[in-house]
Design the sequence.
């Protein structure tokens, strides 16, 4: 019976990615994309998004679910990039400096987020989401009114024509700073090895971190706060630390994302970051209590494959371009919803099964 | 007993919650490497005593304790469990405090992991040292070996059978540096006989290497077979402290429950009205999945017009019985009411057929806390029987009949002496005892043929207790309503019931008349024997 459970567990783990892979496979011929174009696009998306998806792993390990508050980190990254742009530093050096500059902002925001989430145990996901909206307001206030007003800016072309407030869209002189480091082109597919190396380093960091004392504490806290507490682990502090690390990584992730795109959508560039990252991770077969590096990488590939293919397929199917856009939103919100429902349903089933098995055990005690 | 050999000594320890004395003048001592058995009924003060020893927050929060505790030649007063752990006291709780997704080894060394330092950890601090899984595994194996059991330390705890989980917890306590005393709170409660035997063996081995142990169990046979000395608590007092050698189990049972061997049981046996063959309600192979109070297999017959008491220790399943029958927790098997089968897991149907239930969860299940008294009293009758409603347009529109609701509420407020400003007072603002009376009134208002009452006197003061019990008895006598009353307090059951069934390990171990000697009840509760339908004793241990 235990073996059967294991097979079942494996199936429920991989059924979500399989389902979305099949949907994409049906969509590919309909979209009339060439293989090379698709491959190139997927590589680009992988470079762009994997880092930020990976930043979700630690809070899940610490039992706090998906950190929808990673927008906080994204905002920190964007603020850092705006300053770097103003200072006129370009290339990968500019990006490194932006990362450095974003770190203290992320730490401060992450600490605040962690404090809030510690007061909302068991409701972390919705709390972090609303917290993200709240901080977005502060972020906009900062950029719209303080920048150019209280905070002097050297380059007036970054500011709105009224003299203060950052413009809606900025071209980043640091664009492709990491991508161009070791760029190879094989059969029409661009391979930015430099950025991939950064992502691989993060994978190794995550693997190493799980094995540290702090990582072990996070796992313990994530599994059972009461037990961890009675073993002398500082639960609150550990949870805050996981959110801080996640926020800092999200800041770096957003910088990598933006250097690939090349332009910054100042006021709503961070809005969808958390949603798309969460959807990618869940499509990869993760749940809100268990997520791995393969979940993140595979999920990013499948989610963006679908993201590319479905709107175009929808366009050709219906003859209307707008429909395609609906498809995107429909799918990404749908994925998150389904994954959350499936998860709580499964957890309830597991509990029932567990109690049932205990009952049969006591019905026929082994002696 | 040489003074140097004493590890733990309690002198005049007492504890009050508000004005409620739960422990008084507790004196006993424990030598190094000895096992002390602690015995007592529910509510005798065992948990409070253990909470004091282990420095649980609840003690300090409620004003600390009286008296003096000497541990290892030092006077102790722990502020929190971590102090206790540091001093060398380990505690194994009744509920497992293990992390299911961790391996056995990870659990044993939880927050005591062996680590390797690296360049990163030297710069950023100890928290960034990587775990040394080999060393962790070795340490865990050592601890398991001391206990004398074999277990794969790399298995996840969720895949480990229940019987072995206790060992993991004990192993964790051993691993703490300088553990001198381990408190085991009913470690065998969830174990089968053979598993318990292995555990007892492990306890012996621990004491052989010099660790002192306080062993709490309701299985008296285990106390006599493994302990050196024993302490019996009753109503917050130490009744007996003596060496175990030569003590009979019957004697312990008597000490445990026997507060009233001499008190007269005032019981007007109404056996004339009750006929043995007139069965109003019957269960066949009933199981109930109520967490912590599950019922495995109960076949029980309830006679028309009787008051049937159901007793037993906490966690054995007595609460599961009424909750399962009323469909509040998932259940299976068969139940019959007035010789007709009654569907399980269907609360409405049970209520419609004339079965009512006063829940032990007064504030959760029993009452609508933010509604007035009269609404609470008439609520079930209105929902189930469409009473207290005025009907218009041929029943198309139904409106509350406030006048008759008020009348009914007044009736019960007078009859049960519910202390309140008026019938519009919110249930939340009533005292526990008065809330309980409202619950009873609510059940009475449906005119039940069969009434289940669960823990009717829990958490209410003595005066109210008496009133509640009298109300039940009166109601039974006046309306010939069959009442099944579940209670942890044996005395209460003995004062009101016609028969008392004792639930142990999810089954009925026996049904006795209320005037049976307390010892018999005590032995039955601790599962020493079963009594079959013919009244023969089957010894189990």
Sequence:
């Amino acid at each position: 019976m235990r073996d059967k459970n294991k097979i079942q567990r494996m199936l429920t783990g991989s059924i979500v990615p399989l389902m979305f892979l099949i949907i994409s496979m049906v969509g590919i011929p309909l979209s009339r994309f060439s293989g090379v174009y698709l491959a190139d696009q997927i590589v680009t998306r992988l470079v762009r998004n994997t880092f930020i998806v990976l930043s979700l792993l630690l809070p899940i390990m610490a039992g706090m679910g998906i950190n929808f508050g990673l927008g906080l980190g994204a905002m920190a990254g964007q603020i850092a990039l705006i300053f770097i742009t103003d200072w006129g530093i370009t290339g990968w050096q500019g990006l490194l400096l932006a990362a450095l500059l974003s770190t203290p902002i992320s730490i401060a925001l992450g600490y605040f987020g962690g404090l809030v989430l510690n007061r909302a145990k068991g409701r972390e996901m919705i709390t972090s989401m609303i917290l993200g909206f709240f901080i977005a307001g502060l972020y906009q206030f900062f950029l719209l009114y303080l920048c150019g007003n209280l905070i002097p800016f050297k380059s007036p072309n970054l500011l709105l024509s009224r003299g203060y407030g950052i413009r809606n869209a900025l071209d980043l002189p640091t664009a492709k700073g990491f991508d161009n480091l070791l760029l190879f082109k094989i059969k029409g597919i661009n391979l930015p090895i430099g950025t991939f190396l950064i992502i691989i380093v993060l994978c190794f960091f995550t693997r190493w971190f799980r094995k540290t004392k702090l990582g072990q504490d996070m796992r313990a806290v994530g599994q059972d706060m009461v037990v961890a507490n009675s073993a002398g682990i500082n639960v609150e502090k550990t949870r805050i630390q996981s959110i801080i690390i996640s926020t800092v990584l999200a800041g770096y992730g957003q910088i990598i994302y933006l250097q690939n795109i090349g332009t910054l959508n100042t006021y709503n560039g961070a809005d969808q970051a958390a949603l798309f990252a969460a959807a990618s991770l869940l499509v990869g077969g993760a749940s809100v209590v268990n997520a791995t590096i393969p979940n993140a990488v595979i999920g990013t590939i499948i989610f963006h494959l679908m993201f590319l293919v479905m709107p175009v397929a929808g366009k050709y199917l219906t003859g209307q371009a707008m429909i395609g856009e609906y498809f995107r939103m429909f799918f990404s919100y749908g994925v998150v919803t389904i994954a959350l429902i499936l998860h709580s349903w499964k957890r309830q089933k597991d509990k029932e099964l567990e109690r049932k098995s205990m009952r049969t055990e006591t019905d026929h005690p082994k002696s | 007993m040489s003074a140097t050999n004493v590890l733990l000594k309690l002198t005049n320890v007492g504890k009050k919650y508000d004005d409620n004395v739960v422990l008084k003048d507790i004196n006993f001592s424990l030598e190094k490497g000895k096992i002390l058995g602690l015995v007592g009924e529910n509510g005798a003060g065992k948990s409070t005593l253990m909470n004091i020893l282990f420095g649980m927050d609840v003690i300090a929060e409620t004003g600390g304790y009286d008296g003096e505790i000497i541990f290892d030649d030092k006077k102790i007063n722990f502020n929190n469990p971590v102090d206790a752990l540091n001093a060398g006291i380990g505690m194994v709780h009744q509920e497992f405090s293990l992390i299911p997704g961790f391996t056995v080894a990870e659990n044993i060394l939880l927050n005591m992991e062996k680590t390797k330092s690296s360049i990163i950890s030297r710069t950023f601090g100890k928290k960034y040292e990587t775990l040394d899984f080999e060393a962790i595994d070795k340490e865990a194996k050592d601890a398991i070996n001391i206990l004398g059991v074999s277990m794969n330390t790399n298995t996840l705890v969720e895949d480990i059978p229940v019987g072995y989980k206790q060992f993991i917890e004990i192993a964790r306590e051993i691993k703490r540096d300088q553990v001198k005393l381990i408190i085991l709170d009913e470690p065998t409660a969830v174990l089968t006989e053979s598993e318990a035997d292995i555990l007892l063996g492990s306890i012996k081995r621990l004491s052989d290497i010099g660790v002192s142990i306080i062993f709490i169990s309701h299985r008296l046979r285990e106390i006599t077979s493994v302990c050196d000395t024993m302490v019996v608590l009753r109503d917050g007092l130490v009744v007996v402290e003596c060496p175990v050698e030569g003590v009979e189990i019957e004697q312990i049972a008597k000490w445990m429950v026997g507060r009233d061997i001499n008190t007269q049981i005032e019981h007007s046996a109404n056996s004339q009205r009750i006929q043995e063959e007139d069965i109003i309600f019957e269960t066949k192979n009933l199981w109930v999945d109520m967490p912590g109070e599950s019922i495995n297999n109960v076949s029980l017959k309830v006679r028309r017009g009787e008051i049937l008491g159901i007793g037993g220790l906490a966690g054995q399943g007595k609460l599961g019985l009424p909750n399962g029958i009323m469909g509040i927790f998932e259940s299976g098997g068969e139940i019959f009411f007035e010789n007709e089968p009654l569907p399980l897991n269907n609360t409405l149907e049970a209520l419609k057929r004339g079965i009512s239930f006063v829940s032990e969860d007064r504030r959760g299940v029993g009452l609508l806390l933010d509604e007035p008294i009269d609404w609470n009293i008439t609520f079930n009758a209105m929902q189930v029987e469409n009473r207290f409603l005025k009907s218009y347009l041929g029943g198309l529109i139904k409106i509350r009949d406030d006048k008759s609701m008020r009348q009914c509420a007044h009736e019960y407020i007078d009859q049960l002496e519910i202390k309140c400003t008026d019938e519009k007072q919110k249930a939340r603002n009533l005292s526990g005892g008065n809330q309980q009376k409202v619950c009873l009134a609510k059940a009475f208002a449906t005119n039940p043929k069969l009434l289940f009452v669960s823990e009717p006197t829990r958490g209410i003061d003595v005066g109210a207790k008496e009133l509640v019990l009298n109300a039940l008895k009166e109601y039974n006598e006046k309306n010939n309503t069959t009442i099944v009353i579940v209670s942890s307090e044996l005395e209460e059951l003995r004062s009101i019931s016609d028969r008392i069934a004792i639930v142990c390990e999810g089954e009925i171990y026996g049904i006795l008349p209320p005037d049976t000697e307390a010892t018999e009840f005590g032995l039955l509760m601790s599962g020493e024997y079963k009594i079959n339908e013919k009244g023969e004793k089957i010894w189990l241990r």
